[in-house]
Design goal:
binds coenzyme A; 8-stranded mixed sheet; alpha/beta; 2 helices
């Protein structure tokens, strides 16, 4: 663990990530990198450089990629991993994490979230505000679980999928990789095919 944390991305998601990092009290100094050169700070935290210059800081810093888009987040994290950079995970102190839960690096767990026993969350995920992920789930790499999502037990979610705000997934189903589940949708059947799914029950809207 380094004393400095660099958060990549100073947008809305970056500010929430920085707020969590401050509350964790693990780093002496937090800075942002962002490609908007007209912006000098966010949340009172300085933006010290552009994202493309991240490697200039790799020896002395932990990194966290705070980009909401799953694919862009993956691409930047892959570059960091390629250089063996230290990638942090961020867990808000108010999150409730059960026994035998595994949360990989590069993942953020936001305020009020509940992750129950024996669930695995892979690298680079966003577990957004007040979401609940019950027991024995497998959440794949670079998944975004939006605010207020509820996922019952024994659910598998494939890499890079995005569950929209307030959506619900019943127990014992799977969601394929690269799916979008619309806001408020209710998934009651396994989804095998990549696409956007909407409604109650959730049905394929477009491939
Ligand atoms: C599903 C979503 C990604 C849009 O997908 P899209 O394919 O671009 O859909 P469009 O916006 O073109 O809308 C297509 C149709 O689906 C409808 N639709 C869109 N989202 C819907 C939803 N969540 N539930 C039901 N219907 C929806 C639209 O009203 C539209 O209907 P129409 O054809 O009768 O006019 C978006 O609406 C959504 O739900 N996003 C989630 C946002 C979120 O969770 N943000 C949290 C960030 S932390």
């Amino acid at each position: 663990m380094n004393q400095n944390l660099i958060i990549i991305g100073a947008g809305g998601h970056g500010k929430v990530a920085a707020d969590i990092a401050m509350k964790m009290k693990k780093w002496d100094r937090i800075s942002f990198l962002d490609d908007n050169v007209s912006k000098k700070e966010a949340l009172g935290i300085p933006i010290i450089d552009t994202i493309t210059n991240w490697h200039e800081y790799e020896q002395q810093c932990d990194f966290f990629v705070a980009i909401g888009n799953n694919t862009i987040r993956k691409n930047i994290m892959t570059q960091l991993e390629g250089n063996k950079a230290s990638i942090a995970k961020l867990i808000h102190p108010s999150a409730i994490i059960g026994e035998q839960v595994l949360i990989e690096y590069g993942t953020v767990v936001m305020a009020g979230s509940v992750i129950n026993s024996c669930t695995k969350i892979a690298k680079g995920c966003i577990i957004n505000t007040s979401s609940s992920i019950d027991h024995d789930n497998n959440i794949g790499e670079y998944v975004h679980i939006s605010p207020g999502v509820h996922i019952a037990g024994n659910v598998n979610i494939g890499a890079l999928s995005w569950l929209g705000i307030g959506s619900t997934v019943i127990n014992d189903v799977e969601i394929a990789s690269n799916c979008t589940i619309g806001a408020g949708a209710v998934v009651i059947n396994t989804i095998n095919e990549q696409g956007t799914y909407l409604g109650i029950p959730a049905v394929l809207h477009k491939k």
